[in-house]
């Protein structure tokens, strides 16, 4: 398939005349329909091979293009489902589908042609300075015997046989290694590096055209000799897609790879830090215990190197002694380990004890308590019970991997570093972490969309949840459904857009996605497609926790599909009225497609674009940015230079873009403030939505990012445009198509009215930041993180987080006291002065603030305790007295409407 | 509602003393041994256990001079306060026996005997924990020394100067119910912890007789002992001085009577200031239920519960007010408005960041009361209001009271 598409694209570049291109297209479609579309009703989904045979679990990630021209076409051909499934959603009639598909692919080949054209003209991507003295390497590679005879349609020959994903070097002819397929042998081969030029196979020179032919020849050999040449000195020109992509896919690879590579050496590194987890059976602890029989699980391994294991006796004693002495369970201990302070959190589970240790300079005592809760929650959600996850062999690797990632992340100050990066990390790094507050809480940050958008999402999710398939099929379905949907939630770049989960389940899913790095992925490198399937144990269905409600005996599965920055998470239940649950059930293609179609539908409605725009409003309309001393002047300069740019060289480029973006730019206009001149208007909007008001070198850098942004837009608009196009073509049947484009227009225009009320009293907005924690609902409301960082802003925000966390723990006294049964109150040793506090505020002076008279700002926290506790934290400039009740009211008003 | 302190040798784990506060039972020996064992166990592994938090309790292990370990467990209070208390307890031990005796540990029984003098001081120290229950000494604050602002202070100061010359000691002060009314310049140059311990020592056991106790100063003089002499002038009012082998106690008593015989009226009037602790003439807003004035450089404070003028129903009992003020100070003011003088060596960057973020005002609102603290230069005033006062008015009222308190030169603040 890859070969064909490559061939096709090559042909079309060669023959730019329409007629020849159509011929090749035609051939190509014929071929493809015979190979992959032969079974018209159920295409074998591309993730199918990745389903774990034993557990039925799946994590499949398909990345965005490696090198634009080739991968692009590959993706298009390999990933038909968002388009085809949309059709399927409306009609499952095979014939029509076939027709559509045929058109579909034709359209795509045309697109190939276009994209290649673009790439040919656009040479400023990445230049590999091809120094011919680059080192040559010979590599013997085994041919994958399994794949030899069942060549998958959506993989290239090189991928199936060698496990290599190939692309071309900048001349468009020579073959470059662009990546490795999942669990291939080539991946382990150290001599093959991404970016290498594949010169020969068994001493036959290869190029893009003959690669597949050559591979065909060797299909029955056991192994082939590859000659590779390092293409040295990668010159990164204006924008560096390849370079970046390589790093990004490292992260993805890490996500996919649940085994720990180089485990030994990395464990060694971890052992030098005061980090660790241990799960101990306190009952089987004996004096003469030599082989640590009581230790059920520990990480890092081995036992002897793990500080917690060697000193576990101490913690076990603390655990029971202090309970005897004080009648309350120990929560956290601080120890000094090799001169470094570290905190150890206690979690008692029946007779077992779970300990987690992390250094204090990376995570404070209060933060580690929150983190521990999150870990416990995650383990319970993923494995039902801690016993199960630590005793069952099949989970151990996953759990090891989870803790490794957690420790690596904590030690590298919260960065999602890959194994390799962590190994290379400077381990003496004693830098402190910036304080955490809102993102350490068990709440999902949510983004409030305009009303109509919210309705549309809810509608789409409800439809998915209802799984009412009667009307979609001509023949009545005579089988029981496989799953009932317990709930679903939609996230965009880590922000919750809508949830139909029970609160606890929402937090479960949120923690899961967060700790698994899915949100990080969606924020930093939007993938083409991601499918995750896993058996889970949501809190709402945990039999041991809910004794009052009868929970059907069955299994629950988490399905996460991601596309771009959007993540749709669904929990499905196989119990009660469904088909009886199977052991280790894998994902069902139909349900996955349903979820993907729902996500595609939501994206089509423009909702992800809408959220993106709301997120990129800089600053968020409800807050103001504290300006640094020198910054005000700079920002003045900035606006000046921007306007001068507008009049100058920026204009022609602008025009070029608007021609592609015609429709889009009309939309974008609505975001920004209206400025009289048309061309200016566009520009200001762009500047705003991309948020690249980076101070200083505006001309160089932001120009670049601007270009990037435009390219993205272009890419997007192509994509979207074609979607709607397609709808136009297929609109004979799809009744909804009209609605979709209209609705999209409407929703996107709604952002015009997106004018949230000012939260603070007084004529000027003085609010720097706000956080509303609704732990009961699992919802967090706060303005999105700013991409513009200034000293003053960082100082204030870090201080805000530090203080807010203190205040949060202060409020716990009040909440605890209120929940205390009256008969215990007299006996309780709680400090009576702390039991009724509902508001706490501190005024600070920030030396970096610009304002001459007023450098002071408040950090306030308030606990609302009506029926359930809700906390609000705000940070604002001193001057006008603010009423927190009023602010809370205004915040909530917006979240309701 | 309970607190325990135990002290043992860190090498052998031999108990030296153990004290408790509140209605808790005394700790059995086995528990003391286990607590000590936890600390000992970690040593060969290169691990030192420092503190543990439970839902209600804070537990802290502190080893001093590689020779004694002091373990504290207390409910309701924060770990910072408990840690500070353990230091004070150690200083109290040093005060009585000196650092050498502690390090040598030749004879534990003798050490125990010698420490009997300081046990009342240690018990009193325990009262500075904010366990949330009211007691007689809810006014004690860890790390700060209590003063009393009598309108007669400037007069007493003059008499005190003449007494200083008589006894040939620069370190003298006048205590009213254990609170410093006036002290010489040198007296204030002592470390606040030393001042605090000496004040407690002066009022421990009985206040009627004169005392002559040899003391080591935990900061100033760890190895050489001074004589700490206390004479009672009138009930509740004592004069203290630190001196060398001369003059004798009788000579000092004589000098005291000579100097103060004409000032008894002044002293009686000054003692009238109790329990308000600041002049009656000051007009204080009727919504104010209590005051705490602190100087953060000299580490002295004045705390007052203002008796309700009218006998309106009060939500809070009088001594409970001091508790609230103190807890407010410990939890909200101490961390946020006062820069910690001890730089934490292990993470200096945290401190540098906090330095840039020292607060200047703080408040908290509870259902029954409001607390407000304002910092002006080196002084902080914490005020306890009833809950009817609107939050935005707190600042103005506090500032008004503040000015009145610190502008008066007569009270020698």
TrEMBL record, chain A:
Chain residue ranges for the region called Disordered? 1-43, 671-705, 711-730
Q: Does the keyword Ribonucleoprotein apply?
A: no
Spell out the Acidic residues composition-biased ranges.
718-728
Gene Ontology process terms (BP): cilium assembly; establishment of planar polarity; nervous system development; vesicle-mediated transport
Keywords attached to this entry: Cytoplasm, Developmental protein
Q: Name one Pfam family in it.
A: Intu_longin_3
Q: Where is the composition biased (Low complexity)?
A: 31-42
Q: What is this protein called?
A: Protein inturned
Q: Which organism is it from?
A: Psylliodes chrysocephalus
UniProtKB/TrEMBL annotation, chain B:
Q: What is its main location?
A: cytoplasm
UniProt-listed InterPro entries: FUZ/MON1/HPS1_longin_1, FUZ/MON1/HPS1_longin_2, FUZ/MON1/HPS1_longin_3, Fuzzy
Query: Is Membrane one of the keywords?
Result: no
Q: Which GO terms describe its cellular component?
A: cytoskeleton
Q: Where is the FUZ/MON1/HPS1 first Longin domain?
A: 4-125
Report any one BP term from Gene Ontology: vesicle-mediated transport
Tell me which residues make up the FUZ/MON1/HPS1 second Longin domain. 168-259
The record's subcellular location field reads:
Cytoplasm, Cytoskeleton
- Keyword tags: Cytoplasm, Cytoskeleton
FUZ/MON1/HPS1 third Longin domain boundaries: 287-405
Its family remark reads: Belongs to the fuzzy family.
Q: What is this protein called?
A: Protein fuzzy
The source organism is Psylliodes chrysocephalus
The upper taxonomy is:
Eukaryota, Metazoa, Ecdysozoa, Arthropoda, Hexapoda
């Amino acid at each position: 398939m890859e070969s064909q598409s490559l061939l096709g694209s090559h042909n079309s570049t060669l023959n730019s005349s329409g007629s020849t291109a159509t011929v090749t297209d035609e051939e190509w479609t014929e071929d493809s329909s015979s190979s992959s579309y032969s079974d018209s009703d159920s295409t074998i989904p591309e993730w199918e091979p990745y389903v774990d045979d034993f557990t039925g679990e799946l994590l499949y990630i398909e990345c965005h293009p490696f090198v634009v021209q080739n991968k692009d076409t590959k993706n298009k051909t390999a990933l038909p489902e968002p388009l085809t499934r949309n059709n399927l959603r409306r009609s499952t009639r095979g014939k029509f589908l076939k027709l559509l598909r045929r058109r579909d692919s034709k359209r795509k080949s045309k697109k190939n042609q276009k994209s290649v054209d673009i790439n040919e003209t656009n040479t400023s991507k990445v230049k590999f300075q091809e120094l011919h003295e680059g080192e040559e390497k010979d590599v013997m590679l085994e041919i994958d015997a399994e794949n030899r005879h069942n060549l998958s349609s959506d993989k290239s020959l090189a991928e199936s046989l060698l496990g290599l994903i190939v692309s071309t070097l900048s001349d468009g002819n020579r073959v470059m290694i662009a990546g490795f397929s999942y669990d291939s042998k080539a991946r382990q081969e150290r001599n093959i590096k991404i970016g290498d030029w594949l010169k020969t196979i068994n001493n036959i020179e290869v190029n893009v055209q003959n690669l597949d032919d050559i591979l065909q020849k060797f299909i029955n050999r056991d192994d082939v000799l590859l000659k590779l040449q390092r293409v040295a000195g990668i010159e990164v020109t204006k924008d560096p897609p390849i370079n970046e992509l390589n790093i990004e896919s490292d992260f993805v690879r890490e996500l996919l790879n649940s085994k720990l590579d180089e485990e030994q050496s990395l464990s060694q590194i971890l052992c030098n830090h005061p980090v660790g987890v241990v799960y101990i059976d306190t009952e089987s602890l004996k004096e003469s215990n030599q082989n640590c029989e009581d230790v059920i699980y520990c990480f890092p391994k081995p036992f002897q190197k793990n500080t917690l294991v060697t000193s576990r006796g101490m913690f076990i004693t603390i655990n029971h002694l202090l309970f005897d002495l004080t009648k309350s369970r120990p929560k956290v201990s601080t120890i000094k380990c090799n001169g470094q302070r570290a905190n150890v959190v206690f979690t008692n589970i029946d007779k077992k004890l779970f300990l987690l240790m992390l250094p204090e300079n990376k995570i404070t005592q209060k933060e580690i308590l929150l983190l521990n809760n999150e870990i416990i929650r995650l383990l319970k959600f993923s494995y039902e019970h801690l016993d199960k996850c630590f005793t069952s062999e099949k989970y151990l690797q996953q759990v090891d991997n989870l803790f490794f990632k957690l420790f690596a992340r904590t030690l590298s100050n919260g960065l999602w570093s890959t194994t390799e990066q962590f190994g290379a990390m400077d381990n003496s790094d004693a830098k402190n972490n910036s304080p955490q507050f809102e993102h350490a809480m068990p709440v999902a940050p949510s983004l409030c969309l305009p009303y109509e958008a919210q309705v549309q999402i809810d509608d789409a999710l409800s439809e998915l949840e209802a799984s009412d398939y009667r009307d979609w099929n001509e023949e009545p379905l005579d089988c029981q459904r496989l799953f009932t949907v317990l709930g679903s939630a939609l996230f965009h770049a880590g922000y919750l857009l809508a949830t139909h989960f029970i609160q606890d389940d929402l937090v479960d899913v949120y923690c899961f996605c967060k700790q698994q790095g899915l949100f990080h992925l969606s924020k930093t490198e939007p993938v083409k497609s991601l499918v995750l399937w896993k058996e889970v144990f949501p809190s709402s269905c945990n039999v041991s926790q809910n004794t009052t409600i009868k929970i059907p005996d069955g299994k629950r599965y988490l399905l996460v599909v991601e596309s771009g920055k959007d993540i749709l998470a669904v929990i499905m239940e196989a119990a009660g009225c469904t088909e009886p649950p199977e052991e280790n059930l894998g994902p069902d293609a139909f349900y996955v497609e349903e979820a993907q179609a729902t996500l595609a539908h939501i994206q089509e409605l423009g909702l992800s674009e809408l959220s993106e725009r709301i997120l990129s409003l800089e600053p968020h309309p409800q807050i103001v940015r504290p300006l640094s001393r020198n910054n005000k002047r700079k920002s003045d300069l900035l606006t000046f230079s921007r306007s001068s740019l507008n009049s100058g060289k920026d204009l022609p480029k602008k025009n070029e873009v608007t021609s592609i973006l015609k429709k889009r730019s009309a939309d974008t206009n609505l975001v920004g403030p209206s400025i009289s001149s048309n061309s200016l208007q566009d520009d200001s909007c762009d500047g705003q939505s991309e948020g690249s008001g980076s101070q200083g070198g505006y001309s160089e850098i932001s120009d670049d990012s601007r270009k990037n942004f435009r390219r993205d837009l272009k890419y997007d608009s192509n994509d979207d445009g074609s979607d709607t196009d397609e709808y136009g073509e297929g609109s004979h049947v799809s009744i909804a198509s009209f609605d979709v484009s209209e609705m999209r227009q409407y929703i996107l225009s709604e952002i015009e009215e997106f004018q949230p009320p000012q939260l603070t009293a007084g004529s000027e907005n003085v609010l720097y930041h706000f956080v509303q924690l609704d732990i009961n609902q699992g919802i967090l409301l706060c303005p999105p993180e700013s991409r513009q960082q200034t000293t003053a802003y960082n100082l204030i925000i870090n201080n805000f987080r530090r203080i807010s966390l203190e205040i949060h723990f202060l409020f716990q006294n009040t909440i605890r006291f209120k929940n205390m049964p009256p008969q215990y109150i007299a006996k309780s040793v709680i400090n009576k002065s702390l039991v009724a506090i509902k508001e706490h505020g501190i005024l600070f002076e920030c030396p970096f603030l610009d304002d001459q008279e007023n450098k002071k700002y408040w950090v306030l926290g308030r606990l609302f305790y009506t029926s359930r506790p809700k906390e609000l934290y705000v940070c604002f400039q001193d001057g006008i007295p603010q009423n927190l009740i009023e602010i809370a009211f205004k915040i909530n008003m917006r979240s309701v409407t | 509602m309970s607190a325990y302190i135990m002290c043992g040798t860190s090498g052998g784990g031999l108990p030296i003393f153990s004290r408790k506060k509140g209605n808790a039972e005394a700790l059995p020996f086995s528990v003391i041994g286990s607590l000590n064992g936890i600390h000992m166990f970690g040593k060969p592994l290169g691990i030192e256990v420092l503190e543990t938090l439970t839902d209600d309790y804070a537990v802290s292990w502190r080893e001093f001079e590689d020779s004694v370990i002091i373990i504290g467990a207390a409910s309701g209070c924060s770990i910072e306060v408990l840690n500070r208390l353990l230091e004070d307890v150690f200083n109290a031990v040093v005060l009585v026996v000196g650092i050498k005796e502690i390090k040598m540990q030749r004879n534990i029984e003798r050490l125990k005997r010698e420490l009997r003098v300081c046990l009342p001081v240690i018990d009193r120290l325990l009262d500075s924990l904010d366990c949330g229950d009211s007691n007689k000494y809810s006014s004690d604050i860890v790390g700060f020394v209590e003063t009393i602002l009598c309108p007669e202070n400037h007069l007493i100061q003059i008499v005190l100067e003449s007494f200083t010359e008589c006894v040939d000691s620069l370190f003298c002060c006048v205590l009213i119910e254990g609170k410093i009314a006036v002290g010489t310049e040198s007296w204030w140059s002592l470390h606040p912890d030393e001042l605090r311990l000496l004040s407690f020592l002066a009022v421990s056991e009985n206040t009627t007789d004169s005392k002559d106790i040899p003391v080591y100063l935990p900061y100033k003089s760890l190895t050489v002992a001074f004589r700490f002499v206390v004479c009672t002038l009138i009930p509740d009012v004592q004069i203290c001085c630190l001196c060398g082998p001369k003059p004798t106690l009788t000579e000092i008593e004589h000098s005291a009577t000579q100097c103060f015989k004409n000032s008894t009226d002044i002293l009686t009037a000054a003692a009238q200031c109790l329990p308000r602790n600041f002049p009656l003439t000051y007009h204080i807003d009727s919504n104010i239920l209590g005051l705490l004035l602190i100087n953060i450089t000299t580490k002295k404070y004045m705390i007052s519960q203002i008796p309700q003028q009218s006998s309106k129903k009060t939500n809070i009992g009088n001594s409970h007010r001091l508790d609230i003020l103190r807890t407010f100070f410990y939890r909200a003011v101490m961390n946020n408005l006062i820069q910690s003088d001890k730089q934490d060596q292990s993470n200096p960057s945290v401190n540098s960041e906090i330095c840039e973020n020292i607060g200047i005002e703080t408040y908290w609102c509870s259902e029954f009361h409001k607390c407000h603290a304002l910092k002006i230069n080196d002084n902080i005033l914490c005020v306890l209001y009833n809950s009817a006062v609107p939050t935005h008015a707190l600042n103005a009222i506090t500032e008004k009271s503040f000015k009145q308190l610190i502008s008066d030169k007569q009270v020698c603040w």
